[in-house]
């Protein structure tokens, strides 16, 4: 079967720094993959290269067999790639419903409609409400994002990524900076996602990463150190060294 | 009173005063108000980019002037009727926007600089290409517009014509900014990286906005040349581009009435202050600084703030 995401010896060099240094990995359709590693391991840079935010220095990225290495980001989104950002990236001047509407029409031709108001598309509004409902923000639909707490913005961040009809979802530390109870809430939302959506998640919290993932890839210094099931990774000595230091 | 009915009532009052203006105002005021409508329309074209898409274009005077010059040259030098000259002006200005739109490949300060440079090209051409544009003197003796033997010669008739065009534009603009496309522009202003990851080819959206903005500026240019009856290179100057941006900001960026209010304040002040104070541009500068300091969202923003904090009972805030 064709892998949902196949990365072949991907590298990203910033001057003298090899942030990502020849990473190869394959994620099967429907799989949930966690990407872990210490700070500076190259996880977010790898994400940027996969989703098209940054061009890779070398190597290739395939999405369901299609080479997308040099495809602009918006076209990857059309092919079913979607992502969240480590640093919350939502539209603070717009209402929540408008945020969702942008995500919903972003992958089809309705985004070009200029001669009819958005309110002429009740379907979009219904989808936006449903999308907000899914992350527990339905009652805030008409509020401007400015009024949301940080935790609620992380929920909205997730809702945006979920409403572009993704086949593969890349989550960059969805729980970053959240309180334990908020983390639990986001964690539950991610767990409840349909299994058809392939998931790649960067997460520092070992419990979250290991509780969600089918397989785990551990990165260190721009390379893949270990790949395996959560159990295998947890019992690996190298991983223990990297995370806890030499005993 | 809810927001919607408040808006409708304000719009009706504004419309009634605009319709009644020729009955009470003398020729001086009629000239000024017509000018305010035209510059307001030009400021509105700036604000589509500034207030919605987040782009600071400083070459809006180019589209305005190219449209005005095209109409004037066709009408005066080649004797074409208005029905040909006016649409040709619109098309010429818009085509320039199609060409200049490539500036949206840049962002931030680079976009500002490149639009300044593009603006100077047009100004320079009009100033130095004297054999075609009339140089410093420009094109004079533009006749009043006439369509099918029906001439809009009187000041009052032309006032109503401009008013009608401006109202139609405002309605069209309102639909545009409330459409999914209009929302996409505000999304790009908010976070371009997020828009790209949501599937938007952001540069194309900005390009389309730039061309639409050029079309509106061209319309203002055609209205201007028939109002002013002559055109010279000042219309294409950097100063005009800056002034209309300031009008949009002072009036209230991101709104429809804001640019018109800004045009009113700017042109009104200039006409009034310049009659007794030589350094009237200093007064404009002070007004702008005061706006940036105390009313960053312009006069409209100030009124909105007053309304939500003072005009409403507490439970409705």
Textual characterization of the structure:
The complex is a heterodimer of chains A (247) and B (317). Chain A is of the alpha/beta class and 247 residues long. Chain A folds into two domains: 1-80 and 166-247, P-loop containing nucleotide triphosphate hydrolases (Rossmann fold, 3-Layer(aba) Sandwich), CATH 3.40.50; 90-165, no CATH class. Chain A is built from nine helices and ten strands. A six-stranded mixed beta sheet of chain A has the order 6-7-8-3-9-10, sandwiched between helices. In chain A, helix 3 (96-105) packs across helix 4 and helix 3 (96-105) runs parallel beside helix 5. Chain B has a two-stranded antiparallel sheet. In chain B, helix 11 packs across helix 12 and helix 12 (257-273) runs antiparallel to helix 13 (280-294). Chain B is globular and about 50 Å long. Chain A binds chain B through residues 51-53, 72-74, 77-78, 82-83, 85, 89-94, 98, 101-103, 105-107, 110-119, 121, 124, 160-161, 164, and chain B through 175-176, 178-184, 186-187, 189-191, 193-202, 208.
Topology summary:
The complex is a heterodimer of chains A (247) and B (317).
Chain A: E1 5-14, E2 17-27, E3 32-36, H1 43-51, E4 58-63, E5 66-67, H2 73-78, E6 81-83, H3 96-105, H4 122-134, H5 150-162, E7 168-172, H6 180-191, E8 198-202, H7 206-212, E9 215-220, E10 223-228, H8 230-234, H9 237-244
Parallel strand pairs in A: 3-8, 3-9, 6-7, 7-8
Antiparallel strand pairs in A: 1-2, 1-4, 4-5, 9-10
Helix pairs in contact in A: 3-4, 3-5
Chain B: H1 3-24, H2 27-53, H3 60-77, H4 82-100, H5 108-128, H6 130-133, E1 146-147, E2 150-151, H7 155-178, H8 180-190, H9 192-197, H10 202-228, H11 238-251, H12 257-273, H13 280-294, H14 298-311
Antiparallel strand pairs in B: 1-2
Helix pairs in contact in B: 2-7, 2-8, 2-10, 2-11, 2-12, 3-4, 3-5, 3-10, 4-10, 7-8, 8-10, 11-12, 11-14, 12-13
């Amino acid at each position: 079967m064709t892998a949902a995401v196949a990365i072949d010896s991907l590298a990203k060099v910033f001057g003298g720094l090899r942030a990502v240094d020849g990473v190869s990995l394959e994620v099967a359709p429907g799989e949930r993959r966690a990407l872990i590693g210490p700070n500076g391991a190259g996880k977010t840079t790898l994400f940027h290269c996969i989703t098209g935010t940054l061009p890779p220095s070398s190597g290739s990225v395939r999405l369901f067999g299609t080479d997308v290495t040099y495809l602009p980001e918006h076209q990857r989104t059309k092919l079913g790639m979607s992502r969240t950002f480590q640093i919350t990236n939502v539209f603070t001047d717009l209402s929540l419903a408008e945020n969702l509407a942008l995500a919903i029409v972003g992958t089809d031709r309705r985004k070009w409609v200029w001669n009819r108001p958005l309110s002429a598309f009740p379907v979009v509004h219904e989808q936006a409400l449903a999308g907000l409902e899914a992350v527990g923000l339905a009652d805030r639909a008409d509020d401007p994002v400015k009024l949301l707490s940080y935790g609620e913005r992380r929920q909205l961040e997730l809702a945006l990524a979920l409403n572009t009809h993704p086949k593969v979802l890349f989550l960059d530390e969805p729980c970053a900076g959240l309180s334990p109870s908020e983390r639990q809430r986001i964690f539950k939302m991610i767990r409840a996602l349909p299994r058809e959506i392939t998931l790649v998640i960067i997460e520092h919290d070992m419990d979250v990463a290991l509780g969600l993932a089918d397989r785990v890839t551990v990165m260190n210094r721009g390379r893949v150190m270990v790949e395996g099931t959560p159990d295998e990774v947890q019992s690996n000595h190298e991983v223990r060294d990297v995370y806890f230091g030499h005993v | 009173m809810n927001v919607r009915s408040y808006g409708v009532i304000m719009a009706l009052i504004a419309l009634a005063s605009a319709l009644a203006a020729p009955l009470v105002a003398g020729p001086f005021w009629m000239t000024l108000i017509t000018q305010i409508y035209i510059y307001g329309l030009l400021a509105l074209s700036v604000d589509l980019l500034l207030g919605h898409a987040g782009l600071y274009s400083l070459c809006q005077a180019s589209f305005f002037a190219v449209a005005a010059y095209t109409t004037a040259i066709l009408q005066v030098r080649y004797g074409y009727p208005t029905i040909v000259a006016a649409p040709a002006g619109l098309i010429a200005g818009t085509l320039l926007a199609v060409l200049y739109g490539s500036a949206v490949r840049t962002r931030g300060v680079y976009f500002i600089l490149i639009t300044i440079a593009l603006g100077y090209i047009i100004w320079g051409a009009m100033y130095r290409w004297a054999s075609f544009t009339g140089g410093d003197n420009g094109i004079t003796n533009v006749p009043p517009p006439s369509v099918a033997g029906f001439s809009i010669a009187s000041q009052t008739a032309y006032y109503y014509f401009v008013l009608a065009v401006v109202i139609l534009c405002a309605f069209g603009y309102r639909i545009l900014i409330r459409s999914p496309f209009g929302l996409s522009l505000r999304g790009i202003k908010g976070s371009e990286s997020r828009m790209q990851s949501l599937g938007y080819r952001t540069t194309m959206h900005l390009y389309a906005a730039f061309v639409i903005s050029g079309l509106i500026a061209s319309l203002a240019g055609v209205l201007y040349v028939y109002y002013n009856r002559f055109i010279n290179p000042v219309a294409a100057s950097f100063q005009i581009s800056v002034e209309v941006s300031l009008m949009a900001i002072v009036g209230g960026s991101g709104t429809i009435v804001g640019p018109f209010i800004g045009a009113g304040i700017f042109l009104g002040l200039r006409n009034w202050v310049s009659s007794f104070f030589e350094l009237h541009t200093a007064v404009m500068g002070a007004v702008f600084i005061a706006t940036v300091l105390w009313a960053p969202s312009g006069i409209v923003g100030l009124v909105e703030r007053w309304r939500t904090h003072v005009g409403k009972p507490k439970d409705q805030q």
